[in-house]
## 1
Amino acid sequence: MQTRPRHHYLKGIASAVFQAAVRAVAPETCIRRHLSRSKNRLKAGDTEYSLDQIDHLYVVGAGKASAAMARAVEAILEDRIKNGVILTKYGHGVPLKHCKVIEAGHPVPDENGVRGTQSLLDLVSGAGPEDLILCLISGGGSALSPAPAEGISLADKQKTTRLLLECGATIHEINTLRKHLSRIKGGRLCTAANGARIISLILSDVVGDDLDIIASGITAPDPSRFKDCFDILARYSLTGKIPDSVREHLTKGRDGKAAETPKPGDSLFERVQNRIVGSLSDALAAAEAEARRKGYPPLVLSSMIQGEAKEVAKVLCGIAREVQRSGKPASAPVCLLSGGETTVTVRGDGLGGRNMELALSAGISLAGASGMLLLSAGTDGNDGPTDAAGAFADGSTISRAAASNRSAPEYLTRNDSYHFFEQLEDLFITGPTRTNVMDLQILLVDG
Amino acid sequence: MQTRPRHHYLKGIASAVFQAAVRAVAPETCIRRHLSRSKNRLKAGDTEYSLDQIDHLYVVGAGKASAAMARAVEAILEDRIKNGVILTKYGHGVPLKHCKVIEAGHPVPDENGVRGTQSLLDLVSGAGPEDLILCLISGGGSALSPAPAEGISLADKQKTTRLLLECGATIHEINTLRKHLSRIKGGRLCTAANGARIISLILSDVVGDDLDIIASGITAPDPSRFKDCFDILARYSLTGKIPDSVREHLTKGRDGKAAETPKPGDSLFERVQNRIVGSLSDALAAAEAEARRKGYPPLVLSSMIQGEAKEVAKVLCGIAREVQRSGKPASAPVCLLSGGETTVTVRGDGLGGRNMELALSAGISLAGASGMLLLSAGTDGNDGPTDAAGAFADGSTISRAAASNRSAPEYLTRNDSYHFFEQLEDLFITGPTRTNVMDLQILLVDG
C-alpha cells in the first residue's frame, strides 16, 4: 500500500491531467478552434464563407454550454449578428449582446423550454436562402428544446420518453420516438429554415459523437421513420400504454399524413454543415499531453466506455494490475486514460454518482496495491446530485475506510459513494466547468 | 456489417488463436516445461535434486487436470515413483501405473472426495524428511479434496461455504473459512508431511495466480487466522447462522485449542517449492504468437479480467471501437487479448455460460460494425452447463438474429445465450480440453 505522500502526489497529477482535459474543451476554446474571421471571410473548419454574400446572420443554440459558445461567437462576429436565441439550463446563462438567452428546465423540460424553443423556431422560420444560421449545440440540448408536434402536450411527450426509459430502451430507440414527436429534432430545424445556410457547431456529450444523437440531431439528417416508432413500441409492449395523442400522431405519420423527418441525402443538407467542435477525444488528447509532461506516458484505452460503473472499474483495474504484473498493455509508469458514459443501477438509497461509484468499486479492486491511483470524474464538474465531480481511489482506500469501521462493499450496495469518499477526503471537487464531454477516468500506474 | 466470408475467415483465425493458447497449457506440456530428468538429477524449474538423496518419491494431486499431470510425471519418473494418490473429477481420470486415481464430485464435494482425501493424507503422513512429494494441483482441487476438520461433517462445511457465497463474500473470504475448517487446505498438507521435501506443480485457474487461493492453498503458507474467520462471519451477519459444529471448531481455534494453519515464514516451507507450471499468462503468450502469425499483431489488455460478463463485454468492445476510430490503444489490424473469470448474475431461466453471455452482450455492442469479431471461451472447453466452450460475436450477430425474429436483449435478459448462438451456428465447441486456465477473449479488429 502506498504511503500518504505518494497518495497526495498521485492525486495532484491526476487532477492536473483532468484539468488540462477540461480546459481543452472549454466552450470558448472549442469555438475559437473551429470558427475564425479575417475581415469579410468567415472560416468554419475548412469551409470559408464570404460575409458579403450573407444577408442576415443568426445565432441559435440549445445546451448547457451553448450560452458560453454564443459568447465566443459574439466575440468573433459581433457586428454581423442580426439576432439570436440561446436555450440553456437555469443558472447557465451568460450576458450576450445580440442573442436572447432563455433559461429553462433540465433534465426535465418545462414550459420555459417550450416557449424558448418556439422563439428559436420563429427566428429560424424568418430566415431565407441568403441568410446564415450559426447553431450552437451542446449537451442537454434535447431537454432544453422541447417542441412537441401539433396536438401533443409536453406532458404526453415526457410520459412517452419515461415509459421507454423504464423499459430499458436504448438512447437510439428513445431518440427515434423523440424525433418523430418533435417540431425541431431529427433535422427539423433545417426544414424550418427555408433553405438558409446552417453551420452547426457541436460540443458532443454522447458516446461515439453521432450527429443524430447529440441533442436528438436538431440539424442532422434522420435515418429513422415513423414506422420504426411502432416497431420500438411493440418491442417493449408499449403500443397500448402511450398517450392517445402520441399514438394518433405516429399513426398519422405512418399513413403519410404528418411530415417525415428529413433523410440523409436530402438536398436540404447540402446547405448544412454539422461540425463537432469539442468532444471527449479532444479532452483525451489534452490529457495525454499533460500526462506525458508529468512523466506518465499515456495509453488511451477508449473514448467509448459504457457499462455499469462498478463493473467498468473492475476491468480498468484489471488492466492496471496487468501493467504492474507483466508490462502489458503498456509498461509502467503509464497513465491509462478512458472515458465515456457509464450507468449505475440504483438499488440503495445513498448519495452518489456514476464516477464516485466507479471509484468506489476501483478502491475495492485496487485494495492493497501500491503505486496505482484512479480518478473518475465528470467533465462538467458534476457527478450525480452532488457538489463533487468524482473521486479518487487507490490501494489505501479500503483500509483507510476500514480503520473508521466503514465497509466499502456496504457503501457500494447502498450507492452511497459520496459519503464514503467525503469522509476519506477523496472527493474531487471542481465546481461547474461550464462544459461537458462526458466522464473521464485517469488511472496512474507507477513503475 | 461484414460479409459472410469475412465472418467465417475471422472465426477461423480466432479459433486458431484459442487452440494455440490451450495447447500451451496442456497439462503434459506444462509438466514437461518445468520438470525434467537427466539420469539421477531431477530438475524442477531452476532447482535441481539428486534422486540418489531421495528415499521415497510420492506423487499426490487434486484437480481436474491432475491425472493428466500425473501421467506426464510418470513418463519422466516412472521407475522412481513409490506410490501416489490423485483426486480428480468424475470422467477426468486417466490410467496411471504408479498412482491410484480417485474420481470424486465437483463442483459439489462428495463422500468419494472425502475418502480419497483421507487416502492422500494417509500417504503423505507416511513420508519423512528423506522423501520427496510431488504435488500436482489444478483447478477444482479445492472441491475435490474435502477434509473437514475433526467434528465437522462435510454437509456442515458445505453449508458454511454456501452461506458465504449467497452473501457475496469474496473468494479470499470464503477461502479463509475453508482453510480453517480443513485438515489439508491452507498449507496443512505440508504440516502433515513430517518434513518431507515437497515440490508443488500448479496449473493455475485463479485470477492473479495467488498460491494461497488456487485449490485453497494446499501447499502454500496461509496468512489468515482463526480470528479473521469471525470478522468475516460478523461482516455478513452469519455468526449465528453457521452450523454449531463449525462455530465450535472456530472458537477452539481462536482460543488456541485447535492448530492454526502454517504461516508465511514458517521453517516448514523451507522444504516446500510451490511453482506455477501453467497459467492464463502462458496461454496468452501463445495466443499472442499465433495472432501475430495470422497477421493480427496482439495487444494483451489483461489476464486479470473480472466483473459481470455482459458489462465486461461493453468495455472490451468500447476499446475495439476506439481502435477503428483513432488507432488507440493500438492500430488495426490488432488482436485484443484478455482473460480472467467473469461472473453472471442469473436472473432468467435460460441456458448459457459466462463466455456465451459475454459474447451475446458483445454482439449488441458491435451491432452494425464491420471488421470486428469476438470469441470468448473457457480454456477447459466448457462454458456453463452446456457442450459449448463459448461463442463468436460480430457486427452481424444481432441483425442475423433479428432476421429470424430473435431479440438479443431478450435472450440476454433470460440468460439464454446458448440457444441464441446455437441457432446462429456461432457456438464455439471444442469438447473437453483437459486443462483449465480460466477464460479467454479474443477480439480481432481489422484495419
Note: The first strand of chain A starts at residue 35 and ends at 38.
## 2
Amino acid sequence: MSLIDKLNWRYATKRMNGTKVPQEKVDRILEAIRLAPTSFGLQGFKVIVIEDEALREQIFNGACQQPQIKEASHVLVFAANKKVTQEQVNEYIQDIATTRNMPLEALDGFKGMFAGVVAGDEQQNFGWTARQTYIALGVGLAAAAEEEVDATPMEGFSAEALDAILGLAEQNLGSVSVLTLGYRDAANDYLASAPKVRKSKENLFILK
Amino acid sequence: MSLIDKLNWRYATKRMNGTKVPQEKVDRILEAIRLAPTSFGLQGFKVIVIEDEALREQIFNGACQQPQIKEASHVLVFAANKKVTQEQVNEYIQDIATTRNMPLEALDGFKGMFAGVVAGDEQQNFGWTARQTYIALGVGLAAAAEEEVDATPMEGFSAEALDAILGLAEQNLGSVSVLTLGYRDAANDYLASAPKVRKSKENLFILK
C-alpha cells in the first residue's frame, strides 16, 4: 500500500482490542516523531509514552474517559514547554555545535534569534511550543499509518487533570494532545466501516 | 528507503534550484494533506497552492524574504479559519450525512458538540483551527519526504502582509505557516550536508 492508501485505511479509532503493538513498530513511530521538524529545530516538548496499566486507569478515571486509553497498546501524551528558557536555548545551541563540529561563536547569530522567544511570557511561549507538537503529531500519525498501526489523536481530555496525574507542571510542561496506538476492534467500532469524510480538493485547495 | 530513512534525508531546505516537482508528486502530497485528521474532522482551514511567479515575487518582496519563495516549485500557505461559523458546521454535518448515508437527525448529538466552539470568539477559534493546520503540515512533510521532494516549513513571515496579498481576511482566513516544495540546491545550501540535530530519544521521550 502507498502512503495515500494507508492514510485512507487509517481513521480515528474509537475502540481498540488491547493487542500490543510490536516494539519495533512503536520504535519506528517514535523515531519519526523524533525526526519531525519544529520551528528553529528547538523541539520544545516531551512525549510521555505510557504502557503502565495502573497509570492508564488513573488517566481514564481522572482525565479522559475514552475507552482507547485502556484498550490501546501505548498512550502517547504530547506535552509542550510552558516557558522557553535561556538555559534550554543554550543547551540546544551546544547540541548543534557538537553535532556539526562548529565553534559556539559561529552560532551567535542563530542564538540571537531566540531572544524574542525567551523574553516572551508563558502564554506566548506555550502558544508557540504547543503548535510545534502538532507537527510531530502529524508525522507520528503518518508513521503509524505506514506501520499499519491504528492511532487516535485526541484533544478531548482535561489537560489540567492530566498534567496533575503526570506531574507535568513541575517539569515546565503542559499536555496538548494524546495519541493512542493500538489495533481497531472493528466489531465494536461503528467508525471502522464508515466512509471517510473530507473536504473535496476543490473545497480545500485554492490554486494560484 | 523507509519512511525513517526519508525523514533523515529531508531537511529544512534553505536554497532550492527552481526545478518543477512533477504534478503527480504534488497531487499525492496534497492528497495526504487532504486526508490528514483534524479535531472533530472539521478541517477548519484552506491551503493556498501557489505556482504563479508574479505572486511569489510579491510575497517575497512584501511578506517573506526567503529565497525558497522564488526558488521553490510550489509554495503552500496553510490558512486557518479566523471564526468557526454555524454555517460551516452545518455544511460539515450535511457532508457526513451524505457521505455516510445517514439521516441528519442521527448527527444531532455530534453537531451539539460544536456549540462551544461556535460560541467562542475569533481569538479562541483561530487558536484552535491554527493548531489543526500543523497536523496537516506534519502529514504533508511526511508525504513530501516519501516522494523525495524537498520541503521547507516556515513561520518566519509577516502574516499580516501575506494575508493582505492573498486577500485572506475577506475569506475568514489567516495564514499560519508556509510550506515550500521543490528540490535542494545542494551546492549553495550549507544545510544540505549538515548533520541533523535532534534531541536524543532519552531526552525527548519519558517512558512510563
Note: The beta strands of chain B are 45-50, 74-81, 150-154, 173-182, 205-207.
